[in-house]
Amino acid sequence: MAGEPPPLSRKELAQQAKLDEIKSIQEKQNKAARAKAKSKKRVPDDDQAETAEELPPTQADVLPRFPAPQKPAAPSRRELDEMTISHELKDAVLVDQSRSFGIQELLDRHSPSLLSLPILARLKELDIESFFAVQAAVLPILLSDRSLYSPRNPPRDLCVSAPTGSGKTLGYVIPIVEVRRLART
Questions:
Q1: I need a labelling partner for 158 at 20 to 30 A (CA). Which of 46, 49, 63, 126 fits?
Q2: Which residue has the higher pLDDT, 148 or 117?
Q3: To 10 degrees, what angle do helices 133-142 and 168-184 make?
Q4: Binning pLDDT at 50, 70 and 90, where does residue 125 land?
Q5: How far apart are CA 30 and CA 48, in angstroms?
Q6: Which residues of 112-148 are buried (b: 16+ CB within 10 A; e: fewer)?
Q7: Which residues lie below 8 Å from residue 83, measured CB to CB, with a gap of 6+?
Q8: How far apart are CA 139 and CA 170, in angstroms?
Q9: Taking CA 31 as the corner, what is the angle to CA 26 and CA 33, rounded to the nearest 5 degrees?
Q10: Which residues pair with 20 in a beta bridge?
Q11: Which long-range contacts link 141-149 to residues 24+ away (Cβ below 8 Å)?
C-alpha cells in the first residue's frame, strides 16, 4: 500500500479521461492519414509515424471552432401571431429612430398646450431644441390625460424599447413633472 499512488480526484479523473479521448482521436486521425498515404503509394517511415503519435495535443487540435455570433432577425408578424404574443406587442408602433422633431414642430402637430410654459422654459435653459423620435412618439400619448387617476380613464401601460441614449428617460420624466406640477396647483 505504501508504494501505491494516491487515488485520483474527480477533476484529475476527468482530465485523464479527456486526455485518453484526445489520444484516441489522434490515433484514429493518424491511422486514417497512414491509410490515405498508403493509397497514394507514399508510406511514411515507421519512425515518423511513431513520433507523430507521441506529440502532445495542441489547443487547436482539441477545441472546436464555433461560428461567429450573429444578430438574430426580428420575428415577423406571422411568427408573433403563432407565439400568442399579446396584441399590444403585435400591433406595436414602430418609430424611425433616426428622425428628430423640433419642439415647435411637435407642438404644431399635436397641441400648443402639450407642454406647459415652465417646462418649455426649462427645456430652453437646458438647450434642448428638439426631441428624439422616441420622445416625440411618447409625449403626446402620456400627456393626453394629465390627471393622476381618472376613474373613467384608468392609467395604461406603455412599453418602449429603444437603444441606450435614445431619450427614453426624458420621454417619461417630462409627463411625470407635468402631472406633478398640475397636482400642486
A1: 126
A2: 117
A3: 30
A4: very high
A5: 11
A6: eebbbeebeeebeeeeeeebbbbbbbbbeebbebeee
A7: 75
A8: 9
A9: 95
A10: none
A11: 142/171, 142/172, 142/175, 143/114, 143/115, 143/174, 143/175, 143/178, 146/178, 146/179, 146/182, 147/179, 148/179, 148/183
Residue count (the chain): 185
Residue with the three cell numbers 387617476: 149
Range list of β-strands (E), the chain: 100-102, 130-132
Distance of CA 116 to the CA centre of its chain: 38
Residue 170 grid coordinates: 426624458
- Give the three cell numbers for residue 150: 381618472
pLDDT in tens, 127-136: 988 888 888 8
pLDDT band at 94 (very low <50, low <70, confident <90, very high): confident
